Every structure is written in C-alpha cells, then in structure tokens.
Amino acid sequence: MSKANERRQGMSSVRTSGPVLGGILLLLAVWFGWNSYAQWRQDAVAQGLEQARDRAVQDVGQAMATQASQLDAVLKQPPVIAALAGGDALAAASAIRERFKGAEDVQVLPGDLAAAYANPKDFGYARLSLLESAQVADRAQVRVVRDAKQVRLGVAAAVRLGGQPAVAYARLPLLRLTGPLDAIAAPDSAYLAVRQGSYNVAQQGDMALADAAETLARPLGNSGLRVAAAVPQGDSGPLGLGTVGCAIVAALLLIIAVLLVLASRGQVALPRRRAADQSSADEPTFSQSLQHDASVASEARALDAEASPAPPALVPAVQVAAGMFRAYDIRGVVGKDLNPGVAALIGQAIGSVMQAQGLRDVVVGRDGRLSGPELSNGLIEGLRRAGCNVTDIGLAPTPVVYFGAYELRAGSCVAVTGSHNPPDYNGFKIVVGGETLSGAAIAELHQRINEGRLHTAATPGELEQRDISDAYIQRIADDVQLDRPIKVVVDAGNGVAGEIAPRLLEAIGADVVPLYCDIDGTFPNHHPDPSEPHNLNDLVKMVQRFDADIGVAFDGDADRLGVVTKEGAMVFPDRLLMLFAADVLQRNPGALVIYDVKCTGKLSDYVLRNGGSPLMWKTGHSLIKSKMRETDAELAGEMSGHFFFKERWYGFDDGIYAAARLLEILAQREQTPSEVLDALPESVSTPEIKVPVEGDAHALVAQFVARAQTGEESPFESARLSTIDGLRADFIDGWGLVRASNTTPILVLRFEADSEAALQRIRTLFRNELQTLLPEHSVAF
C-alpha cells in the first residue's frame, strides 16, 4: 500500500470514528464535570457548617460566660455578702435571686452536699457534678442540669455561709444557652447540635446525621458541653480525584472530544510523523495506535499474571492506618484514624476471620464515648456484610460484652471502647471463638483489609438488639452475697460502669455512694484511669466525707479496678491479687495463679505459702487470658488493675466482678476493711512510671537487655534477670523493671525494695543505664 493510500485510509478512519469517540468523550467530560460541581457543593456545605459550628462555639460559650459572670457579680454585692455572713441559707438565696435577673430558683447548699449525696439519682447527677465542680473552682461554673423534672441551665459558685463552706446554685431557663444556636443558620442538608454527654440540648438540621456528628465536634471549654456537627457522607469522586482533579479531567476530555470532531471534518490536521527522520511507512494510524496500546496492555497483564499466580489485591476505598492495630486490641483517634467506614472494614475483616473458622454469631457492645454509636453501627454493618449474625447489646461495659458471648452462646464478641484513653480515642477489643485476639491475629485483620481478603456473604447477617445488664447482675448476685453490709464509694469516672456498677454492688448487699456515675464520654471530672494515683483524689475525699469503709474506681470500660482505703491509701492491684489468691486457694489448693512482670516480688512467696503455684507472665490482658487458657489457671492479675477469675466466673478481666469479690472477702472478716488490706505484705515501691521516648521503644529496650547481659562487666551481674517482657532484674533486696508499652510510645518502669535506700539504688542503676543509651536526652524518673 502506498503512503498516500495509507494516509487516506487513516483520515477515513478518523472521519468515521471521530464523531463517535468525540461523543463518548463529551459524555465523560460532562460526567466528570458534574462530579466536580457536586463535590464543590459538598465542600461548600462542609465549609459553611464548620463556620456555623465555630460561631456556635463562640456564641454559646459567650452566653455561658455571661451567666457565670453575672452570678459572680451578684455574689460581690454588699446585701448578698451580708446575707451570706448571717448564716441563713434561705435569706441568702432570696438576696441572690432578687439580683440575678431571670433566675427561676436559687439555693444556697451546705458544702458537704449531704442532701444531694443521700439521693443523687433524684437530685440529679449532672446537678451534683456542677456543685462539686463549683466547690473547687475559682469562679462560677455552668452546666446543663435536670432540675424540677425539666432540663435547665444551672450556675453555681462556692461561697461561705456563716463562715462555713457552701455552694450558691441558680436555675435558669435553657433558652439562655440555646438562644445563640437558634440565631445561627446551618446549611439545610447539614446537622448542628449542642450536646452534654449523650444528651442533645438543642439541635437543628438533618436529624438523620445525628449519629455521625461527633467527628466534627468541638468542646465548650471545660463545661462538659460541645457543639457537634455533621454533613452528608460524600465520596472523593471517580477514582478518588476530588474536586480539582475531576475538573481537570473534564477539561482534558472536552478538548480531546472537540479535536476529534474537528479532525473528522478535516478542520484539524493530524500529525504525520513522530520524528523528522522517521518514514511515514512506520507511522501508525490513530486506530492502529489504539490497537497497539490495547495489545501492549494485554501483554503486560499477561506478564503480570505469569509473575503473580495470586489475584491482585483489592485496594480498599478507605485507607486504614496500620498504627491502630496494636498488641492487645485496635485503638485510634476518631476522625483521624477511625470513622464509620474504617469501622465497617474492621467489622468485615473480623467477620471474615469468623467465617474461616465456621463461626457466625457475635455480640457487640460499646462504652460511653461520644463516637461509640456511629463506630458501633459501622462495625455491625461490616460484620453483617461478612454474613455474621449480630446481637447488639448497646451501651455496656467491656466485661458485660464478654459475658454476653457466654450468656448468649455466641462465643465471639467485639467491644467498641477506647478503654482509659482520652475522649477522642476509640477502638475495638475482639474475641473470636473464645480466644481474645492479640499480636499476629490483630495484625492479620489489617492485612486482610489491605489485601482485600474480605468475605462478602450472599445474604447479610441478621441483627438483634438485647439488653443483658439484668442478666449480668443476676448471675453475679446469685453467687456473691455479703455477710454484712459494707459502705463503698463507687467512682465510675463518668465511664460506662456508672449505671451498672452501683446496681450490682447494691444487689449483693453493699451500701453504695456513687461518684461521677453519670456516663459522659467527655470525662469532665478526671481521666478514667484508676492506675494513676491523682485520678483517685476525689474518691479519697468522698470516702472520708461519708465515713465509708472503702472506695472503688473503674476505668472507662470497667475492665480494671482501683481501690482506696478509708485512710486515703491506694491499694496497689498486685497486693489485691494476694487477697484474691488466698481466697481462691482455700477452695482450690495447688491452683495456678498468674501475675504480670510489673507485680510485687512478694506475690510469688505469698502464693506459695497459701498452697498455690505462681507464674509470672507478659503484661497485656489478651496475653494473660491466652496463658490462662493454656495453663488452666484459676486466677490471674496485672499491676494495671485487670483481674481474671476462672473460679466461679469465666476467666475474662472484669473490674466490676472483681469489686464484688473484694467486698465479699472483706465482709467475711472480723477486721475492718482497712485492717485486712493493711495486713497484706508490702514493700517500698513505686507506681508505674511512664517515660515517653522518641523512636522505637522496643528497640531501645532490646539494647538495654543486651547491655544487662554482658556478663561480669554488667551492673546487673548480681541480679536474676527475666526477659519475657522487657527486663526485670531481681536483686536480693529488691527489683526493677523496664519494658516497652505495647499501646503507646513509652517505657514503663517500676521499682520495689526492702528499704528506701535499696529502692533508690536500683532506680539509679536503671536511670544511668537508660541515660547511657539516650545521651542526648535527660532521663529523669
């Protein structure tokens, strides 16, 4: 064929196919353009909502500050000062009300708040929390409260009534708070709300978005209130291109379409050569180019198929951060690492593992964190997508979720919880077929998601909703009853134990005084971590104020327990484990008792003297439970406050059940609870010491271990070394431990000795060794 004929044939092909291809590309350009516009509109709505939210934070916050300032100003007026000095609470309240414009009611209450503590449920937990906060603050505090069987705005400030501590409290119309929100116009398709805990004080917009509103929430200072916001869930456009990317693709497609149409009419000349020295005989036509490209792509796919016998991995539309998949569970920051889409992928991955083991039934529960409902819904969606039948027990402590796996004969469960982490964290604790997932099993979930190895059932699994809290309480109360009443203060730290723990302890015969038992995922009073001594300060005060026998505290999801005595002493969990061990061994002589590497060196001897077999093991609730199953141990415990009873229970960590067993033991003794606890062996010791580090904490500990094992030149030569989890060095007069946390980038240390001098010697030894490994940092502990 001549060059001219080839050219004429190519032009004929373009004239024939050009309009068709141009039309197709034009339609694609319109589609990409529409997606660009839709995403621009979506971004505009999101931007408008964020502006409305920020204005709401400012205006509502200003309204609260105004009410607080007004009460502070009223309390400084001479007639009010005189009325308070007179000591007449009614007269002082009347003087305040006359000067506090708009106040519906004013009370001046004694500082001991005895009437409120006598019946906190009827008085109102939120109102009690407001008065407690006011007592320790240097200015008036504002909260949304339930008063006179209605939701109102409460303002309170510390005063002195007749020279004695007291609290002035004013009840205001809720409109004082919600008025500014009503004046703000959020986009119609969005959602905006003022919330306190799980209660919506005021809301506007699309109510269907309420469960997804915590991702964009912003707090209102330390008031416990926040402004929550949500926009409809959108996507990132075709191929994840976004607004600008879609616009660029649309423009390029439009240009190509126009050029093709013009070329088909002969109005645009197609290039004849690729290079000056290349003959026209070597130049392919447009159709030939397309055929060549298709052929190359086909050959490439064939080569890829030969090189990779497995099918290519499916990349998930939602990227999942590997850092969330930790040694014991999955945990991340909401909005950054975690959202409902990620939760759905995790649920589908868990469901895929279950399906591989022939399991289909799973129990799901969540703690009181604000992000809990939306993450739980996402998780359940993923589990059902994998064909699993889900029983949703709703708001429940993690031990109750574990209990549900046994009670409902599911064998598998997932607790949506951030445990003791800050409010913006959440995560998942997972049990599959009775085995708590940890280590490689947790990592495999991430691998499944990344590789697209997710089972999708032909028919989604079923969903059932049940409340098993009464069954949990009844199961324990049928077995545990106190021989005599014990007065106990229960500090739930605004965590999920707040509703069920007081009920359970009352059911077994205790006299319960609740503290911070209103469930509030912002944790407004203190961090829900009883292993930190400063988090127990309020509990100590309450125990002493009410002359209680003992105080107990729980972490955010209630699988850990903290204890204080009437004298204000914190009873470390390893010493509590001694008490539990002696009790269990009375009925099970020779039983195995497991404890983690952070526990006291006196525990082993104590277990042996009581006829048991002690075993030290790695830290971590999943690792301890796995070791219990392997060894058939009757009891285990960790320094962090996890207690695991197999005797008379199911072997999982349960802070609420442990509290019941503790009260049972104390009620059986003739001595007071403080005398029983003080009699337990004790040494000079430190709590857990947490040292943040940069880089890989595990690698640093590995270097520490290597230096300690260098032989005669090592300062640890005289110690018995254990390396099952970091390095524990047991000397003749004490021991020290350094290990890398499996959940956060920190080193965890603890020291114990027979004397203060020995403690400081061992502590200094560890500090000097760490300083050698970290010469550019100041190591202080």
TrEMBL record:
Catalytic reaction annotation: alpha-D-mannose 1-phosphate = D-mannose 6-phosphate
Catalytic activity, EC: 5.4.2.8
Domain Alpha-D-phosphohexomutase alpha/beta/alpha: 324-452, 470-568, 573-682
GO molecular function, one term: phosphomannomutase activity
Sequence intervals crossing the membrane: 239-263
GO biological process assignments: carbohydrate metabolic process
Spans annotated as Disordered: 272-291
Keywords: Isomerase, Magnesium, Membrane, Metal-binding, Phosphoprotein, Transmembrane, Transmembrane helix
One Pfam family linked to the record: PGM_PMM_IV
Pathway(s) per entry: Nucleotide-sugar biosynthesis; GDP-alpha-D-mannose biosynthesis; alpha-D-mannose 1-phosphate from D-fructose 6-phosphate: step 2/2
Span of domain Alpha-D-phosphohexomutase C-terminal: 688-766
Enzyme class, broadest EC rank: isomerase
Compositionally biased spans, kind Polar residues: 277-291
Named cofactor requirement(s): Mg(2+)
CDD domains with a match to the protein in the record: PMM_PGM (cd03089)
InterPro entries: A-D-PHexomutase_a/b/a-I (IPR005844), A-D-PHexomutase_a/b/a-I/II/III (IPR016055), A-D-PHexomutase_a/b/a-II (IPR005845), A-D-PHexomutase_a/b/a-III (IPR005846), A-D-PHexomutase_C (IPR005843), A-D-PHexomutase_C_sf (IPR036900), Alpha-D-phosphohexomutase_SF (IPR005841)
Domain of life: Bacteria
PANTHER family: PHOSPHOMANNOMUTASE, PHOSPHOMANNOMUTASE_PHOSPHOGLUCOMUTASE
Family, similarity comment: Belongs to the phosphohexose mutase family.
Listed name of the protein: phosphomannomutase
Lineage: Bacteria, Pseudomonadati, Pseudomonadota, Gammaproteobacteria, Lysobacterales
